[in-house]
Amino acid sequence: MSADYKNTVFLPKTDFPMKAGLPDLEPKLLARWAEIGLFQRMRAVAKGREKFMLHDGPPYANGHLHIGHALNKILKDVINRTQFMLGHDVHYIPGWDCHGLPIEWKIEEKYREAGQDKDQVPVVQFREECRQFARQWIDIQRAEFKRLGVEGDWDHPYTTMTNAAEATIAAELGKFLLDGSLYKGVKPVMWSVVEKTALAEAEIEYHDHTSVTIWIKFPVVTASHPALDGANVVIWTTTPWTMPGNRALAYGPEFDYVVVEVTEVAEGSLARVGDKLVLIKDQAEQVAKDAKCTFKVVATLKGEQLAGTICHHPLKHHPEAKGGYDFAVPALAGDFVTTDTGTGFVHIAPGHGEDDFHLGRANGIAVPDTVQPDGTYYPSVALFAGLSVLEKGKNGKYYSPVAKPVMEAMKACGNLLANGKIEHSYPHSWRSKAPLIFRTTPQWFVSMETNGLRAKALKAIDDTRFVPAQGKNRIGAMIETRPDWCLSRQRAWGVPITVFVDKHTGQPLRDAAVMERIVSAFKEQGSDAWYTTDPALFLGEGRDPKDYEQIFDVLDVWFDSGCTHAFVLEGEEWSDTKWPASLYLEGSDQHRGWFHSSLLESCGTRGRAPYDAVLTHGFVLDEDGRKMSKSLGNVVSPQEVVGTQGADILRLWVVGSDYSDDLRIGPEILKTQVDVYRRLRNTLRYLLGAVDGISDGEKLAFADMPELERWVLHRLTEIDAGLRGACHSFEFHSWFNELHNFCAIDLSAFYFDIRKDALYCDHPDSLRRRAARTVMDILLDALCKWLAPFACFTAEEAWLARHPSADDSVHLHTFPDIAAQWRDDALAAKWQQVRAVRRVVTGALEGERVAKRIGSSLQANPALYVSGEAMAAIADLDMAEICITSGLLVVEGPAPDSAFTLADVPGIGVVPRGAEGDKCQRCWKVLPEVGHHAHDGVCGRCSDAVAKL
């Protein structure tokens, strides 16, 4: 009966569980980090280092986090942690955007449901309800962000609604006021009739919308060319509701136009035989089809020949118009007219289009007041007073209820040529989802030209690093063409535009002392002071409040967030901050949002961008590349993923994705991340077990290590270099894939596989075993630290398993110091050949296993035929050890035809053979020597090890 040698084998030993149980583990680690004050400890450890400041773009405080929030904050956390572990002083101050329409809308809804008018509520009371709503959601979102493992100054975040923040925002506005950049002007803006306010470009999104289209005849009164006598200029528009605001027509001076006479009409046509119509030549045939008529061309003329033509409004002679449309409608040259659709004429309503406004102003045409803030026509608008230009239908879709009355009125005047419908991309409010209108209104603007703001911003863009690089072109193109910055919103919840206007001159009061008093009041009382303080206290002695209009519009929230650099990076509330920020990081939509407003604000007040670099990530889609929506049932909730699988799984998804483009997520993708996580965890677990009980005295010097260990250390130098490159480029997915492959292939399937025998069966004094344990300890240290920024919970769990301590954390350390002497490219090239030879051997043995001629590779003693350079590579190596066989015969020369080969490894062949002898009861090798040593049933190596034990 053979002896039991089980107790003499050194099997890995660790309490680190195979099953992570992240949903239970992670909250415990969060509690531990709070208990040891991890963030404060990290700040203390980093004191005196070079600063890295990622300034947080503020999310909006009004709802649970979605998967886009998770992507954004995890990526920020990964970058902050990698920069800390590179040796920087990282101070991350999370923040929130608190003012603005979404919160105000929620509070308004509460009043509407109660049958109350929000405008009857005292403004300070209403604002306080908005403030409390924001505070509630800040607390909820803060807990959800922390649960993702995001480390930062959560006890002292910034918000745009604190007294200090609002005072700074007012002070920043004051700089634009005092230098003459801020002015009040009448310009067309995107207007929400639902929310009753102007919207910024960043608050607009485009959706498909169905519009009524109309072809309208404008009778010519004064003809610039004989062919135009008695003719009608025809326009086509998708906004019938703008017709009451028409004051001119635009044509393209370089285009070819035709005058046609209707010769025949089909049933249902609104055209009349004998009608003379003026149309663009390229679209004349299409207009005939749309109007269900045929015609003959009676004249052709260039657009420039239309100059001087005057029409009258098509509703002039309506029996109920009462002179409301009795004015001239001149034809004007416009460089925005196109030939691809319509009729070649654009009807000009200066109150409802940017091109319309500028063309009208250039020709001295006044802007009529037609549509009120709520989307109804002013009482002075003939025929349509009080009607709405936009309403939500019973089907939930918005439409223009006035389209039909406009068409009926045009038909009554004989000037409706045709009508139809079109589905097209149309601007909508990203909050209410309602279509928008262009509406010329008095607003407060910051000039892009008065003090060279556009030029400063373009230079700042050139001086900024953008990742990906195309972001520079994107934001640059926006700045080059953007109009003046509209700052005013007609709402209650926000920082008021702290301006007094002189009623006699119409000019804003530009007085530094007044602004200083306002800012001081805001510091003490917040921006509510604007509503509660006697304006005389702001204006000072010698000024009568009756002579001034106090402005109660509020600032665009993008101005608020554009100022965050001023009160966070330069403010007094946080010490050890840095201006400008090292990095701004948000979604790619923020080129027109936060990146944009911060750039303009900072360039206008400081002459440069508030950031050195800008990083953008894509949007999150489902696994099929579709936008997530509740109706499709494809929404992935970060809370659900964290609760069932753990935050580390989400974090691996982020770093394993190319976030420079849109990302995808769903059950199958998360399953892949779980598999990746499992392999990483198993690697950590194996290493923890392998180094159990290791002491400094056991560790071996680099010079004494076998080639295999030195090859592993060389691989560490390559991975470390890759990591540092990834940290610089902020692109981690390629490197993380390399790290995963290193664990799964280089370590688990190769190095661990080979060294398992030495680790389990060599005597503890064996140099081979000591070298393996030394390298495995180095590996464990490196992997824990490399994984710390990415799988922050698991890295901490493994670190504490190796270094149990009451107050230590892997997150207090920097990345491992990788010795330069470990780099050995020649050794790496040699072992690349060795591994290629090993692949042929393992391929041959796998065939034997499939054929059931062997069970384990240790039952084999193959003959290896080697030709060429590979012989030199393996000459001094124990290939049986490397191939995990009980023996291996190396034959230099060509392999026999029966040998197993691989096409991509030429010159190598293997003839499988069974191992002869008995199986060692301790190491399981099959050797002739088994049974011929002092201890029964074992080989010589194992007999010696048992004897020493």
Automatic annotation (TrEMBL):
Domain of life: Bacteria
Motif ('HIGH' region): 59-69
Positions of Zn(2+) binding: 920, 923, 939, 942
Chain span(s) of sequence motif 'KMSKS' region: 627-631
Aminoacyl-tRNA synthetase class Ia domain ranges (all copies): 29-665
Free-text cofactor note: Binds 1 zinc ion per subunit.
Binding of ATP, residues: 630
Record GO biological process: isoleucyl-tRNA aminoacylation
Positions contributing to L-isoleucyl-5'-AMP binding: 586
The keyword RNA-binding belongs to this UniProt entry's keyword annotation: no
Key words of the record: Aminoacyl-tRNA synthetase, ATP-binding, Cytoplasm, Ligase, Metal-binding, Nucleotide-binding, Protein biosynthesis, Zinc
InterPro entries referenced in this protein's UniProt entry, alphabetically: aa-tRNA-synth_I_CS, aa-tRNA-synth_Ia, Anticodon_Ile_BEm, Ile-tRNA-ligase, Ile-tRNA-ligase_type1, Ile-tRNA_ligase, M/V/L/I-tRNA-synth_anticd-bd, Rossmann-like_a/b/a_fold
Domain Methionyl/Valyl/Leucyl/Isoleucyl-tRNA synthetase anticodon-binding: 709-858
Gene Ontology CC, one term: cytosol
Cofactor(s) the protein needs: Zn(2+)
Catalytic activity: tRNA(Ile) + L-isoleucine + ATP = L-isoleucyl-tRNA(Ile) + AMP + diphosphate
EC number: 6.1.1.5
Compartment(s): Cytoplasm
Family stated for the protein in its record: Belongs to the class-I aminoacyl-tRNA synthetase family. IleS type 1 subfamily.
Role, per record: Catalyzes the attachment of isoleucine to tRNA(Ile). As IleRS can inadvertently accommodate and process structurally similar amino acids such as valine, to avoid such errors it has two additional distinct tRNA(Ile)-dependent editing activities. One activity is designated as 'pretransfer' editing and involves the hydrolysis of activated Val-AMP. The other activity is designated 'posttransfer' editing and involves deacylation of mischarged Val-tRNA(Ile).
Record text on subunit structure and interactions: Monomer.
PANTHER family: ISOLEUCINE--TRNA LIGASE, MITOCHONDRIAL, SOLEUCYL-TRNA SYNTHETASE
Entry comment, domain topic: IleRS has two distinct active sites: one for aminoacylation and one for editing. The misactivated valine is translocated from the active site to the editing site, which sterically excludes the correctly activated isoleucine. The single editing site contains two valyl binding pockets, one specific for each substrate (Val-AMP or Val-tRNA(Ile)).
Protein name according to UniProt: Isoleucine--tRNA ligase
